[in-house]
From TrEMBL:
This is Uncharacterized protein. It comes from Gloeocapsopsis dulcis AAB1 = 1H9. Residues 94-104 have a biased composition (Polar residues). Residues 108-122 have a biased composition (Basic and acidic residues). Residues 54-122 are annotated as: Disordered. Residues 57-69 have a biased composition (Low complexity).
């Protein structure tokens, strides 16, 4: 793809200026510019990196510019407990929650709750 011939089409021109230029080239009034895409691409790659980027000062400036500006908090671990279906586990949970609440939970109340939670196998 070193040299590729460009053939402008006046019908595809997006502006009046482009259309006039395409017509002039099509009529032979203007010469088509030779374009070396590979050479242009290589030159663009060279120009995309500035001289300072090739030094330690440039690397430090880039690091400073891209450094996070806000402190990120660390996530806290949470503990998840699963129950086994054992009524004693529910009794223990009820007792633990009753210690934290102001409602009195008796063993009879826990037993009633456990009985209501059982599936009816009728």
């Amino acid at each position: 793809m070193a040299d590729e011939e460009i053939r402008p089409n006046p019908d595809q021109a997006t502006t009046q200026e482009a259309q006039l230029a395409a017509e002039s080239i099509a009529e032979g009034k203007e010469k088509v510019t030779d374009i070396d895409f590979d050479a242009d691409y290589a030159a663009a790659q060279q120009m995309s990196v500035s001289d300072i980027d090739r030094t330690d000062a440039g690397a430090q400036a880039a690091q400073k510019a891209t450094a996070p500006q806000f402190e990120v908090s660390q996530p806290e671990e949470t503990r998840t407990e699963t129950t086994t279906g054992n009524p004693e586990d529910y009794k223990q949970m009820a007792q633990e929650s009753s210690a934290e609440s102001t409602t009195e939970v008796s063993d009879d109340l826990v037993k009633k709750a456990l009985d209501k939670g059982k599936a009816d196998n009728s």
